[in-house]
Design a protein that fits this description.
689 residues; mainly beta; ten-stranded antiparallel β-sheet; 10 helices; 26% strand; globular; binds MU-OXO-diiron; binds calcium ion
């Protein structure tokens, strides 16, 4: 393969087949065209029928211990449903689902062609940090026409997805640390066509990974700015070493010629959503890692994980043999990706971890809650059509204030996969979304064991095999095939767990499993939200469930369900993806797709989950052309919302851009002569003003 092939635009097998306004370019670059491929789960099993500060997001729940100069011990972290109401929440929140300070008039859906951020009346927005912003003292200014790998390594990466902002203890609300991951790159709009292919690959690679950046503001009423050269600033690159923890550490299944001990992995890839732990670390999910590897593609494991023999979209395999698992010594390299990563944003010298105990699959992310028993429970979805929902329960127990101990909790524990059972007759599941006669999509479920007390619970597989080939292990025990579980988030107010099933165009198509009560639409275009109630303690192996909503646009004739809330009084919503909670228990949903056929932009939506307005959906914002709304952070006490805008202007090219987010030129003015302009994925803040 020659150097010159590296800039060829990837084939677009999804052209004409995408959902809503989803770009076929996004499908190619982000997901390796997963939806154009055969369904990779061919198993038969589916036929079993705070930090003390109340000013911070509770999603950013919290509990810092010793972290170098930041040593602080928090007294009242919000860690569990049981303790939430007693742990320093506002009086209003104690009553449950009180009125938030963040009041707004919902916006109307915005046309997908609009290249603007749309926010409610009375709000404004501005970037916190953009792709290419220099973060170290010696980092060069962003120069889009002349980017180098050395510059990009010191600048904020591309396509920010999971994002959180944690206040630095003791800073009186004036200092915080921002984490963002960088899921993938679109070299066609990032770099001039004249840039040499090798340079494109190197700069693109340096735009992947993770970033940690300090923020500052004058006071709590002012917007945040990032601080160039701050002490906590850090980039995580393909050269960054991660410690592999848990039963797979040292296993022959993860050894390579570069890491014969099988314990140290360089880099993280395909980072999508994530979560913030009660002890103030960040979890990030390695999702579509398969798109970065060339493989034989013939083994059961390769097929189940979508690994194939075609050149990759970015062709890093031309520069480093590890990206081609056919190369001697690198056969296991792909086994070293697909994990949950844990990062300590408060210690820039810390070694990030990959936790094998949470299993290996296309992790959307992971979110943690501390059970009444003290065990830590992490929920994680496998974002692939007909794949599964997982739960990890730690062996050890959370100790409030002992951050060093708590940072070991995800290294050892039990792993389960979910089996849902509906309670309505199959004949009532029409496949179009009609509510069954008992008035609800609901039933019971079991957490089926994969690993228990350090041993495999799957016949014929060792614990190492279960954790490296988790999809294959799960196939053997009969879990429920879901419609692409994206973010899975427990409410710290109630302990109920919310699962965003984004869509599944193949449900009920051909030999694929047809609609079930928990995935009730064939050719599921618009997705749905599952609400899980664990039986007693969060560590339980049984649960009950119901659907909070079946998404779509009622005005377009979609059959929808919003827990009985009048369908003519909701904002239309489709393809739920990232989830977050505000401080009074409202669920916020960001979307990756709009109701099909009406060409609307992705957005952020508030959903009331309890009380008379349960099921009410209100759109808060819409993102610019081709963009996806990611990483929502709801600081409702400060009437501020943050989102990461990913892949704006995806369908453009360097010489013919279709978005200029976020550096718009004021109306009536023109860009500076000679200015090269392009969309820059960015974290933005939306606030009253
Ligand atoms: Fe990267 Fe599952 O979205
Ligand atoms: Ca039912
Ligand atoms: Ca996602």
């Amino acid at each position: 393969m020659s150097e010159t092939t590296a800039r060829k635009f990837p084939l677009l097998p999804m052209l004409g087949h995408t959902k809503g306004k989803r770009s076929a370019v996004t499908c190619a670059l982000k997901c390796d065209n997963a939806c154009a491929s055969e369904v990779c789960n061919t198993s038969e099993n589916g036929y079993f029928r705070d930090i003390a500060s109340a000013t911070l997001s509770r999603r950013a729940a919290l509990g810092f211990g010793a972290a170098g100069a930041l040593a602080v011990v928090l007294g009242s972290a919000v860690t569990s449903a049981e303790s939430a109401s007693a742990a320093g929440l506002s009086a209003a929140a104690k009553e449950g689902f009180a009125k938030s300070k963040l009041q707004f008039t919902p916006i109307a859906a915005v046309d997908a062609s609009v290249d603007a951020v749309t926010v409610p009346d009375g709000f404004t927005w501005q970037p916190v940090i953009r792709w290419g912003d220099p973060i170290f003292a010696d980092a060069p200014a962003f120069d889009i026409a002349n980017q180098t790998a050395a510059a990009q390594e010191k600048q904020f990466g591309y396509n920010n997805d999971y994002t959180d902002i944690l206040e630095i203890p003791g800073s009186k609300g004036r200092r915080a640390v921002l984490f963002a991951n960088h899921e993938y790159t679109n070299e066609t709009i990032m770099f001039p066509a004249t840039m040499p292919a090798g340079q494109v690959r190197a700069v693109g690679a340096a735009a992947h990974g993770l970033s940690v950046v300090e923020l500052e503001r004058k006071n709590k009423n002012k917007p945040w700015s990032y601080v160039k050269g701050a002490g906590l600033n850090r980039r995580f690159l393909n050269s960054t070493a991660y410690e592999l923890t848990g039963p797979v550490a040292g296993s022959p299944l993860v050894r390579t010629v570069q890491d014969p001990a099988g314990r140290t992995i360089k880099g993280t890839l395909g980072n999508c959503s994530g979560g913030t732990t009660p002890w103030g670390t960040i979890l990030s999910g390695e999702e579509n890692f398969n798109g970065y590897f060339v493989a034989k593609g013939t083994s059961a494991a390769d097929k189940r994980y979508g690994l194939g023999a075609n050149p990759t979209a970015r062709q890093w395999e031309l520069d480093d043999p590890r990206w081609d698992t056919r190369n001697p010594g690198y056969e296991n390299e792909a086994n070293r990706f697909g994990w949950i990563v844990e990062v300590d944003p408060f210690d820039p010298t810390s070694t990030p971890k990959k936790h094998s105990s949470l299993g290996r699959f296309k992790h959307e992310g992971a979110n943690v809650i501390v059970a009444k028993s003290g065990h830590v429970v992490a929920y994680s979805g496998d974002d692939e059509r007909f794949d599964y929902l997982y739960k990890f329960v730690s062996a050890g127990k959370y100790i409030e204030g002992d951050r060093k101990h708590n940072m070991t909790l995800l290294s050892e524990g039990n792993l389960y996969v979910a089996k849902f059972t509906g309670n309505s007759p199959a004949a009532e599941i029409t496949g179009v979304g009609n509510v069954p006669a008992d008035g609800a999509f609901d039933g019971i479920g079991q957490w089926l064991p994969l690993v228990v007390d350090g041993a495999s619970a799957v016949p014929g597989m060792s614990v190492e095999e279960v954790l490296v080939y988790t999809r294959l292990a799960a196939d053997k025990v009969g879990p429920t095939k879901m419609d692409r579980c994206e973010d899975v988030e427990p409410s710290l107010l109630t302990g109920k767990v919310y699962v965003a099933c984004t869509n599944n165009s193949n449900r009920g198509v051909g030999a694929n499993e047809a609609a079930t009560e928990m995935n009730p639409r064939n050719q599921n275009r618009d997705g749905h939200i599952v609400e899980i109630t664990e039986t007693g303690d969060q560590t339980s192996t049984t649960f009950s469930w119901n659907l909070l909503m079946v998404c779509g646009d009622p005005a377009q004739g979609d059959v929808t369900y919003f827990s009985g809330f009048p369908v003519d009084k909701v904002s239309p919503i489709s393809c739920p993806d990232n989830l977050a909670f505000d401080s009074v228990g409202n669920l916020w949903i960001s979307t990756d797709g709009a109701p099909s056929g009406i060409g609307k932009a992705d957005g952020l939506f508030k959903v009331t989950v309890a009380g008379k307005d349960r099921g009410k959906v209100e759109q808060f914002l819409a993102v610019p052309r081709d963009g996806e709304t990611c990483g929502p952070i709801i600081h409702d006490d400060e009437r501020t919302v943050f989102v990461s805008v990913q892949h704006p202007g995806e369908d453009g090219s360097f010489g013919a851009q279709v978005s200029f987010f976020p550096d718009y030129v004021a109306e009536g003015t023109t860009p500076a002569p000679g200015a090269v302009r392009a969309p820059r994925p960015a974290v933005i803040q939306v606030f009253r003003g």
